[in-house]
Protein backbone atom coordinates (compact mmCIF):
# COMPACT_ATOMS: atom_id res chain seq x y z
CA UNK A 1 0.00 0.00 0.00
CA UNK A 2 2.84 2.38 0.83
CA UNK A 3 4.34 1.67 -2.59
CA UNK A 4 1.09 2.73 -4.28
CA UNK A 5 1.10 5.91 -2.16
CA UNK A 6 4.63 6.79 -3.39
CA UNK A 7 3.67 6.19 -7.02
CA UNK A 8 0.59 8.40 -6.64
CA UNK A 9 2.67 11.17 -5.02
CA UNK A 10 5.21 10.93 -7.85
CA UNK A 11 2.55 11.27 -10.56
CA UNK A 12 0.84 14.10 -8.69
CA UNK A 13 4.15 15.96 -8.41
CA UNK A 14 4.95 15.45 -12.09
CA UNK A 15 1.46 16.47 -13.20
CA UNK A 16 1.58 19.67 -11.15
CA UNK A 17 5.06 20.57 -12.42
CA UNK A 18 4.55 19.69 -16.09
CA UNK A 19 4.68 22.85 -18.16
CA UNK A 20 1.80 23.89 -20.38
CA UNK A 21 4.21 23.41 -23.31
CA UNK A 22 4.22 19.66 -22.65
CA UNK A 23 0.59 18.55 -23.18
CA UNK A 24 1.71 15.10 -24.37
CA UNK A 25 3.58 14.45 -21.11
CA UNK A 26 0.56 15.56 -19.10
CA UNK A 27 -1.71 13.25 -21.13
CA UNK A 28 0.68 10.32 -20.52
CA UNK A 29 0.67 11.04 -16.78
CA UNK A 30 -3.13 11.15 -16.67
CA UNK A 31 -3.34 7.83 -18.54
CA UNK A 32 -0.82 6.25 -16.15
CA UNK A 33 -2.83 7.61 -13.22
CA UNK A 34 -5.99 6.02 -14.62
CA UNK A 35 -4.23 2.65 -14.81
CA UNK A 36 -3.44 2.84 -11.09
CA UNK A 37 -7.09 3.34 -10.30
CA UNK A 38 -9.96 1.19 -11.42
CA UNK A 39 -12.26 3.95 -12.72
CA UNK A 40 -12.04 7.75 -12.80
CA UNK A 41 -15.10 9.93 -12.18
CA UNK A 42 -16.17 13.52 -12.74
CA UNK A 43 -19.24 14.86 -10.91
CA UNK A 44 -21.57 17.56 -12.25
CA UNK A 45 -23.97 18.64 -9.49
CA UNK A 46 -25.10 22.17 -8.60
CA UNK A 47 -26.00 21.41 -4.96
CA UNK A 48 -22.74 21.61 -2.95
CA UNK A 49 -23.93 19.29 -0.18
CA UNK A 50 -25.11 16.64 -2.63
CA UNK A 51 -21.84 17.01 -4.57
CA UNK A 52 -19.82 16.45 -1.40
CA UNK A 53 -21.87 13.35 -0.48
CA UNK A 54 -21.45 11.93 -4.00
CA UNK A 55 -17.68 12.53 -3.89
CA UNK A 56 -17.34 10.68 -0.57
CA UNK A 57 -19.59 7.87 -1.76
CA UNK A 58 -17.52 7.47 -4.94
CA UNK A 59 -14.24 7.44 -3.01
CA UNK A 60 -15.61 4.78 -0.65
CA UNK A 61 -16.50 2.67 -3.70
CA UNK A 62 -12.89 2.86 -4.93
CA UNK A 63 -13.33 5.48 -7.64
CA UNK A 64 -10.90 8.30 -8.25
CA UNK A 65 -12.82 11.60 -8.39
CA UNK A 66 -10.95 13.81 -10.86
CA UNK A 67 -13.08 16.79 -9.99
CA UNK A 68 -16.52 18.30 -9.86
CA UNK A 69 -18.40 21.30 -11.18
CA UNK A 70 -21.66 23.07 -10.48
CA UNK A 71 -22.21 24.45 -13.98
CA UNK A 72 -22.18 23.13 -17.54
CA UNK A 73 -19.39 25.23 -19.13
CA UNK A 74 -16.85 24.37 -16.42
CA UNK A 75 -17.91 20.72 -16.45
CA UNK A 76 -17.54 20.35 -20.22
CA UNK A 77 -14.14 22.05 -20.20
CA UNK A 78 -12.77 19.85 -17.38
CA UNK A 79 -14.30 16.62 -18.66
CA UNK A 80 -12.85 17.12 -22.13
CA UNK A 81 -9.49 17.87 -20.55
CA UNK A 82 -9.35 14.84 -18.22
CA UNK A 83 -11.51 12.32 -20.13
CA UNK A 84 -12.75 10.36 -17.11
CA UNK A 85 -14.17 6.84 -17.39
CA UNK A 86 -17.44 7.87 -15.71
CA UNK A 87 -19.46 11.05 -15.47
CA UNK A 88 -22.07 11.47 -12.76
CA UNK A 89 -24.33 14.33 -13.85
CA UNK A 90 -27.46 15.91 -12.41
CA UNK A 91 -30.07 16.44 -15.10
CA UNK A 92 -31.41 19.69 -13.60
CA UNK A 93 -28.60 22.26 -13.37
CA UNK A 94 -28.93 25.96 -12.73
CA UNK A 95 -29.42 28.38 -15.64
CA UNK A 96 -30.57 27.31 -19.09
CA UNK A 97 -28.34 24.26 -19.50
CA UNK A 98 -28.98 20.81 -18.13
CA UNK A 99 -27.06 17.58 -17.65
CA UNK A 100 -28.39 16.13 -20.89
CA UNK A 101 -26.81 19.00 -22.84
CA UNK A 102 -23.52 18.37 -21.04
CA UNK A 103 -23.71 14.67 -21.97
CA UNK A 104 -24.46 15.39 -25.64
CA UNK A 105 -21.46 17.71 -25.88
CA UNK A 106 -19.18 15.16 -24.23
CA UNK A 107 -20.43 12.24 -26.33
CA UNK A 108 -19.44 14.14 -29.47
CA UNK A 109 -15.79 13.86 -28.34
CA UNK A 110 -15.51 10.54 -26.52
CA UNK A 111 -17.70 7.79 -25.02
CA UNK A 112 -17.57 7.63 -21.22
CA UNK A 113 -20.24 5.90 -19.16
CA UNK A 114 -22.68 8.55 -17.97
CA UNK A 115 -24.77 8.21 -14.84
CA UNK A 116 -27.68 10.66 -14.72
CA UNK A 117 -29.22 11.62 -11.41
CA UNK A 118 -32.42 13.58 -10.86
CA UNK A 119 -35.21 14.14 -8.39
CA UNK A 120 -37.71 14.71 -11.21
CA UNK A 121 -38.33 12.00 -13.75
CA UNK A 122 -40.84 12.41 -16.54
CA UNK A 123 -41.50 11.08 -20.02
CA UNK A 124 -39.76 14.00 -21.74
CA UNK A 125 -36.51 13.35 -19.84
CA UNK A 126 -36.71 9.60 -20.45
CA UNK A 127 -37.20 10.25 -24.19
CA UNK A 128 -34.14 12.52 -24.29
CA UNK A 129 -32.07 9.94 -22.41
CA UNK A 130 -33.09 7.10 -24.72
CA UNK A 131 -31.24 8.82 -27.58
CA UNK A 132 -27.91 8.77 -25.70
CA UNK A 133 -25.49 5.88 -25.66
CA UNK A 134 -23.89 4.29 -22.57
CA UNK A 135 -26.00 5.98 -19.95
CA UNK A 136 -27.43 4.92 -16.60
CA UNK A 137 -30.00 6.52 -14.33
CA UNK A 138 -30.32 6.91 -10.55
CA UNK A 139 -33.25 8.59 -8.83
CA UNK A 140 -32.41 11.09 -6.06
CA UNK A 141 -31.66 10.77 -3.26
CA UNK A 142 -28.76 8.62 -4.43
CA UNK A 143 -28.15 5.68 -2.13
CA UNK A 144 -24.86 3.89 -1.69
CA UNK A 145 -26.56 0.65 -2.75
CA UNK A 146 -27.93 2.14 -6.02
CA UNK A 147 -24.56 3.69 -6.86
CA UNK A 148 -22.80 0.38 -6.17
CA UNK A 149 -25.24 -1.55 -8.39
CA UNK A 150 -24.78 0.86 -11.30
CA UNK A 151 -20.98 0.58 -10.97
CA UNK A 152 -21.24 -3.21 -11.05
CA UNK A 153 -23.23 -2.98 -14.31
CA UNK A 154 -20.66 -0.62 -15.81
CA UNK A 155 -17.71 -2.81 -14.82
CA UNK A 156 -19.37 -5.83 -16.45
CA UNK A 157 -19.39 -4.09 -19.85
Question: What does this protein structure show overall?
Answer:
By secondary structure, this protein is of the alpha/beta class. The protein folds into 2 domains: 1-36, no CATH class; 40-156, Response regulator (Rossmann fold). 54% of the residues lie in helices and 17% in strands. The chain has helices at residues 2-17, 23-36, 48-60, 72-82, 99-107, 123-130, 144-156; strands at 40-44, 64-69, 86-90, 113-118, 135-139. A 5-stranded parallel β-sheet has the order 2-1-3-4-5, sandwiched between helices. α1 (2-17) packs antiparallel against α2 (23-36) and α4 runs parallel beside α5. The longest helix has 16 residues, at 2-17. The protein is globular. The two termini are 28 Å apart.
Amino acid sequence: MFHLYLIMRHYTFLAKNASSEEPYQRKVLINQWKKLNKLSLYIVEDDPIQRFVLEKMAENLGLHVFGSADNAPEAVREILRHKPDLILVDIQLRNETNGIDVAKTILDSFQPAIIFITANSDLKIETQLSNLSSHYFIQKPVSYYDFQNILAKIEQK
